[in-house]
Automatic annotation (TrEMBL):
InterPro entries: PfkB_dom, Ribokinase-like. The keyword Membrane does not apply. GO terms for cellular component: cytosol. The lineage of its organism: Bacteria, Bacillati, Actinomycetota, Actinomycetes, Micrococcales. This is Sugar/nucleoside kinase (Ribokinase family). It comes from Brevibacterium marinum.
């Protein structure tokens, strides 16, 4: 999933008619569960390549240029001349939360032909981001690709964004993938929705583990992260105490930090600790690229910042 975010802060309300509300800041950023995660991984020093579709327009050029500048390999970022680049408008509230106004557009053009087995050559880990909002690869194409990745002995991580138009449809996209997922990295709202768990974290954990996921890490904002697998259940790690500006991109920063730590031989708890620092640090600015996550910066942040109480 690759898109551009247009973010404005702080939005108290949408003016009636032709009214105007003056904001403190508006930004254009690279975003999406693949694009933002890839940029953060590159900043953390990892060798990362991304697969997706953008339009032949200013936003597509912006995304590709910014990703290349960050050090992401974009050879497999295809340009589609028939649709504009996927984008989201995000009015940021003062508590850092934000509704999303999203157009799928070119993300819907990603299809099974983009997921060739050759992509897995010389790769150690595959991260699938954006399931449910990638109609061209949701379901069988994703399942086949992840199955091939596991047959080759690769590690698989996954995040998803429910469309919320139909629980059955979203589950049809997600559930067949789960037996091939080593690390599932959803937010609490998304995790509970797909599991039909209400606010019951244990019910959600059971749903994903019983569906075949090896490790479930549910990110919970200021409440940190919950880690579960076949050996331990709902192990909680606390978030860092920061002044939240915007929560956009925090989940992608968490995913990048977690994957980067895994690639450097961390165990799941060590990786989650590093990932929490990445996610918490990203919340201190506006947008998915508010902070360039270098390892030095993240480690300095981890040392200096206190943790929130569980």
């Amino acid at each position: 999933m690759h898109l551009a975010d247009v973010l404005g802060r702080y939005v108290e309300s949408i003016p009636d008619g032709q009214g105007i509300q003056l904001l403190e800041e508006i930004r254009l950023t690279v975003a999406g569960t693949a694009a933002a995660t890839a940029v953060n991984l590159a900043h953390l020093g990892e060798d990362v390549s991304t697969v997706g579709v953008v339009g032949d327009d200013a936003l597509g050029t912006f995304i590709t240029t910014r990703m290349n500048d960050a050090g992401v390999t974009t050879n497999h970022l295809r340009v589609d001349r028939g649709l504009p680049t996927s984008a989201t408008m995000l009015p940021i509230r003062r508590d850092g939360s934000r509704p999303a106004l999203h157009v799928v557009s070119t993300n819907g053009r990603l299809d099974h032909q983009d997921l060739q087995a050759e992509l897995l050559d010389e790769v150690s880990l595959v991260h699938l981001g954006g399931t449910c909002l990638l109609p061209g690869i949701d379901g069988r194409p994703s399942v086949d690709f992840l199955r091939t990745a596991k047959e080759r002995g690769l590690t698989v991580a996954m995040d998803f964004i429910p469309s919320r138009t139909s629980l059955d449809r979203d589950r049809q996209a997600i559930e067949p993938c789960l037996p091939f997922v080593d690390y599932l990295l959803p937010s609490d709202d998304d995790a509970y929705y797909i599991a039909d768990a209400g606010g019951d974290r244990q019910k959600a954990i059971d749903y994903y583990l019983e569906s075949g996921v090896q490790n479930v890490l549910i990110t919970m904002g200021a409440q940190g992260v919950s880690i579960s697998n076949t050996r331990e259940c709902d192990v909680r790690l606390s978030a860092f105490d920061v002044e939240v500006v915007d929560t956009t991109g925090c989940g992608d920063a968490f995913s990048a930090g977690f994957i980067s730590a895994l690639l450097r031989s961390a165990d799941v708890r060590e990786a989650a600790e590093f990932a929490l620092a990445c996610g918490s640090l990203m919340a201190t600015g506006l947008g998915s690229d508010a902070v360039d996550l270098t390892r030095t910066q993240v480690e300095t942040f981890r040392t200096a910042k206190s943790r929130l109480l569980l």
